[in-house]
Amino acid sequence: MKDASGLPQSLLVLGGTSEIGLATARRLIARRTRTVWLAGRPSPALTAAADSLRRLGAEVHTVPFDALDTASHEERLGKVFTEGGIDMVLLAFGVLGDQASDESDPVAAVRVAQTNYTGAVSSGLVCAGALQAQGHGSLVVLSSVAGERARRADFIYGSSKAGLDVFAQGLGDALYGTGARVMVVRPGFVRSRMTAGRAPTPLATTPEAVASAIELGLRRRSETVWVPGVLRMVMAAVRHVPRPLFRLLPV
């Protein structure tokens, strides 16, 4: 159970090799988290991630999880909850894709959409139902500022994150008053393996900074967290830029 600080004793990370997911796990283990489940495709990377967290003193388990295999989500994730209560679920998986090539490869574009949106809807509903049934817990969903407004440079990825963001907000409303809750996290450009080779945008951040913002959001019981925080004001302005002018901006 979470204490008065709002921080969890037990954590399930969907996307067990995610740099943001692992940075968040490390930060929470340093506070009070004692049990961590890493859900991801079985691989040496997942094993190494689990070992790294064990060295910090946590009890760590892994569970096979593939965002695209939605038929398995209820059984595999449900099993985690039968092993004991989960205080926090971090939905941290996702793919960026390659906008330039994906525009001419519908199969690849659909894979981005199915991973980031369909897989998140399936696993998110499974975990939300389990949190509601136990009467407590937080579902933290990694969205993105890319979903705030369509951009020529990344509209395939951005559209999947826009769908995820709306889904997460609605799910939060559906859970209101049940003891379970949803927190949406909207980072800007994150310097990580996923963005390696891409020029960082202004206000770029790091996995560690996102993890810090997640901790603060949990303590404050926030519904939405922007990383960095100034993006809230920036995107409020960007949403109202006339479309003909927005097309000309270097974004």
TrEMBL record:
One example GO MF annotation: oxidoreductase activity
Report the InterPro entries cross-referenced here: NAD(P)-bd_dom_sf (IPR036291), Sc_DH/Rdtase_CS (IPR020904), SDR_fam (IPR002347)
Q: Which Gene3D superfamilies does the entry mention?
A: NAD(P)-binding Rossmann-like Domain
What's its EC? 1.1.1.333
Task: Using the record for this protein, list the coiled-coil segments as residue ranges, or answer none.
Answer: none
Which controlled-vocabulary keywords does the entry list? Oxidoreductase
Tell me one Pfam family matched here. Answer: adh_short
Provide the family line. Belongs to the short-chain dehydrogenases/reductases (SDR) family.
Q: What is this protein called?
A: Decaprenylphospho-beta-D-erythro-pentofuranosid-2-ulose 2-reductase
